[in-house]
Design goal:
By secondary structure, the chain is mostly helical. It has twelve helices and no strands. Helix 3 packs across helix 8.
């Protein structure tokens, strides 16, 4: 298998992991924050996953001195990509349903492409990528539109929590581009594990300041949701996303925020009996068409289409 073919296969596998796991994580997060204090719930998720991934990194030979002069980048990544983004998300999802949250997160793809125009590794999307993003946005609008005679499910949701999720998307996208422009030459397990540990500490401190320890109690649904998010969302999917952030284009990386609303809608329909209108079915199909257009291999790819591999 040629290096290009291996790169393409890895791209497909990482995208599939991010699509499937994060598409179902909205439901798990919603269950978790309804049964456990939100910030401590999120902190536990990242602290546990961070310990696991950092332990694997040390077993693979990582040592802290390898980060000499780069700790400030790691702290910035953990603050943007973990603490602020996920802190806002878990707080808001006390009021915002999982499907609505997934729909609001669709804006991440546009923010990532916008911020990707700047920085040391700036990438200007081609016409096909822009068309794919536009198609994906149209599909997201179709998903949001209520069925004839129905009310918009977001209409009864408080505005401030929804705006908090949009702000989380902006911060997440900035963190993604920051990671792309400041690729750390360390083991990938160490990169993600230390980010999660630092981000989990920030979230735990915020939870303590909000008085959440007094509200903590052992809840079976909450613990099961936490276990799912630790193993699959915080470990497997974050590793896949980190690979995409360092190797794929911003447009490709951001496509998960189009697929996730479609999958979250299906999960809500199957798992919770939520009604799925014909308009939503068409929206899901249009979203997938946009993703296919962005990721379809070009016949003569330009050198700038893909991000360069990280420094050894």
């Amino acid at each position: 298998m040629t290096p290009a073919a291996r790169q393409r296969r890895m791209l497909v596998l990482c995208l599939a992991a991010v699509y499937l796991i994060w598409g179902t994580s909205y439901l798990a997060t919603r269950v978790g924050v309804l049964h456990l204090p939100p910030l401590l719930f999120g902190a536990a998720r990242f602290l546990i996953a961070g310990v696991v991934l950092t332990g694997i990194a040390f077993w693979r030979g990582f040592r802290p001195e390898q980060l000499s002069g780069q700790w400030h980048h790691l702290v910035a990544m953990s603050f943007m990509g973990i603490a602020i983004c996920n802190g806002l998300q878990v707080w808001a999802m006390q009021w915002v349903p999982s499907g609505t949250s997934a729909l609001l997160n669709a804006s991440c793809a546009l923010w990532i492409v916008l911020f990707g125009l700047f920085g040391a590794r700036a990438h200007r999307p081609g016409r096909r990528e822009m068309l794919g993003l536009a198609i994906g946005f149209i599909g997201t609008v179709l998903l949001v539109l209520p069925a004839p005679g129905a009310t918009n499910p977001a209409a009864s949701t408080p505005l401030v929590p929804q705006l908090a999720i949009v702000l989380a998307c902006v911060v997440w996208s900035l963190g993604t581009i920051y990671m792309r422009n400041h690729a750390l030459a360390i083991d990938l397990f160490a990169l993600m594990g230390l980010q999660m540990l630092l981000g989990g500490v920030w979230m735990a401190l915020a939870g303590v300041l909000r008085g959440e320890p007094a509200a903590w109690h052992w809840s079976r649904p909450g613990i099961l949701a936490l276990a799912y998010l630790v193993v699959f969302s915080a470990c497997l999917a974050y590793m896949a996303y980190a690979w995409l952030a360092r190797h794929a284009t911003p447009a490709q990386t951001g496509t998960y925020s189009y697929v996730n609303p479609a999958l979250a809608t299906v999960v809500g329909y199957v798992g919770l009996g939520e009604r799925m209108s014909l308009m939503q079915v068409w929206g899901a199909a249009v979203i997938l068409a946009g993703v296919l257009m962005i990721n379809w291999p070009a016949t003569s790819p330009r050198p700038s289409v893909r991000a360069a591999p990280p420094e050894p």
